[in-house]
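Justification of resources, computational component.

The compute hours requested in this renewal are based largely on the per-chain cost of generating structure records like the one below. Each record pairs the submitted sequence with a full structure-token output. That output is archived, and it is also reused by downstream analysis tasks.
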Amino acid sequence: MALPEVDYIWMDGELVAWADAKIHVLTHALHYGSGVFEGERCYETADGPAIFRSREHAERLLRSARMLYMDPGYTVEQIMEAKRELIRANGLKSCYIRPVVYRGYGAMGLDPLPAPPQMFIAVWPWEAYLGEEGLKHGVDVGVSSWRQRGINSTPPAVKATGQYLNSSFARLEANRHGYNEAILLNEEGKVCEGTGENLFVVRDGIISTPPVSDGILEGITRDSIMLIADNLGYDVLEESLVRTDLYTADEFFMTGSAAEVVPVRSVDGYVLGEPGPITRELQATYFRVVRGEESEYEEWLDRL
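The structure output for this chain reads:
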């Protein structure tokens, strides 16, 4: 499916026409993956568009940039305002948001420091990442033969562009095998994450998710679901999981800003079935939260 075009992209502090948002072919990030990014969503609410957990995404973007010694020259508040400005300029009620800080044109070689940091933010309308049917009935996933990158190789705390080549290998393999998504294990064989999602399993009414120490991205949607589940009275454990925990789960779901809250219907052909009651409750609550229908979570919404 072609990427839906809008009018403007924000580049280094200015709104640029979509077709004119270009970088040089010798941009450092294009050759070496020296960029960091965020993925987030703006939702339509009864009181207008609202970006979900905008501050937390901006804070994580700057933390990632700092790990690569990149200073884009913008504060958290300025990045938040840039997102608002861009969405307003494009007249969008809801959208996906992609801020990127990257090493630009001006130097080549594996030392990234001589290449100047630059930044852009793009927005576009984007429906359910794994499809509306996936949200309703669940998706089929497979455990990948590709392992998650090691935590002392490229740290998962940094949401870097180059690191996601690992996820692309896993997704290509999943596509060939007829799965909607892949599950990656870490080098120790512990369950890690999807190609772009955090994972949760439910067994005997207890919700479990892999800990950050097993090499996962500390997802903002993951954090949101853990807090929502706790407020609903569920026990949520951060504990290491092995692949058989996925096969024998009562329920299994994935979370992410793009994927939102997606039930898993089967793993490696082991059928879990239609989404279970806990998954359904968490999913329904999450969508009410992001659409501004739960006043308890109003602070998570950055309204335009």
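The chain has two domains: 8-124, 132-290. The two ends are 29 Å apart (CA to CA).
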